[in-house]
Amino acid sequence: MSEQQTAEVVTLRHAALAALRTCDPHAKLAAVRSLPSAPVGADEAIAEPPGVPGRPQRPILVPPQRVPRRGVHTRAGRAALLHALAHIEFNAINLALDAIWRFSGLPDEFYLDWRRVAQEEALHFEMLCERLRSYGHAYGDFPAHDGLWEMAAKTRGDLLARLALVPRTLEARGLDVAPVMRARLAAAGDADSAAVLDVILQDEIGHVAIGNRWFHFACLSQDPAAVHVRLAAAYNSPTPRGPVNVAARRAAGFTEKELQWLCRVPLGRAQP
């Protein structure tokens, strides 16, 4: 390989950062689909540039309590729900890309796992946008909140906290609520959107499992359950709430000790 060819090689971590900074959703999806699998560049030192994360001007971001909540018995309500889910998936793309470029010195498998997550989240986003189009809407038509990325920003310098509080807490919550939302959409007559949620739930089990795998790896000899509780308190993470999808969480790698702790948490209250 010539010196010129060598200079043109882009590592997975640099490509992930470029995709993360891309604002246009369609361009971001194309960049994610094109992420290389090699070279990974695990040991590269990459300084954080401006423009992280890249996202479009819409949707308008508002505090969570200002995001309208509408029942799925109307078309407008179902469209609002699908938009909220699409926004979660768009953020999930950015979270996976951020994990790839931000944390150096890990095994190549770590970066390849999150590459897979980014690409599957991109597919989920596309599927939900297609369902939105069937309702006469597009991503950006409704306000949204920034809770997922706010936790990513809080844990930007702490790999262990990122793994504990994003995939194992915020994203794992999706395993609990997806069956409820799927049932509501099916009952409202939207079988196509319900089928999309079936796909998303199965993929998300794998994504949370990846988070669990690398959280346990990063814990070294520490008790993962105890570390999680400590980090949740330190970073003021959202408290667990029922219902808990025990089967999905078990499939995603939560231990029986963790499941027992989650299931004995009263609705809206955290138990130490």
First-residue to last-residue Cα separation: 57 Å
* Percent in strands: under 5%
Q: Which ranges are low-confidence, i.e. pLDDT below 50, for 5 or more consecutive residues?
A: 1-6, 266-272
- Just name the CATH architecture: Up-down Bundle
| Helix and strand composition category | mainly alpha
- In this structure, how is the largest beta sheet organized? none
Counting structural domains, the number is 1
At CATH level 3, the topology is: Ferritin
Give the beta-strand count.
Answer: 0
CATH top level class name: Mainly Alpha
User: How are helices and strands ordered from N to C?
Assistant: HHHHHHHHHHHH
- Per the principal axes of the C-alpha atoms, what is the gross shape? globular
| Overall helicity | 55-70%
Which oligomerization state do the chains in this entry correspond to?
A: single chain
> Averaged pLDDT, please?
92
Outline the structure in words.
There is one protein chain. With 272 residues, the protein is an all-alpha fold. The protein has a single domain, classed as Up-down Bundle (Ferritin), CATH 1.20.1260. Helix content is 62%, strand content 0%. The chain has twelve helices and no strands. The protein has helices at residues 3-8, 12-21, 25-33, 75-102, 108-134, 147-154, 159-171, 173-187, 191-219, 224-234, 246-251, 256-263. Helix 8 runs antiparallel to helix 9. It is globular and about 50 Å long. Mean pLDDT is 92; it is low at 1-6 and 266-272.
